[in-house]
Amino acid sequence: TLLYSLDQHGISFNTFYACSEQPKPPNALVIIKDDSDTIFGTFVGDIIWKSRRRGYYDTGESYVVSPSPFPPLTLRRFLWRYSNHKLSMYKPTGCNSYIALCEPDYLSFGGRDDGVYGLYIDKSLLEGPSARCVTFGNDILCSPRRVRAGGAVGFECIRLEVWRVG
Question: Per the database record, which ranges form the TLDc domain (predicted)?
Answer without folding.
Answer: 1-166
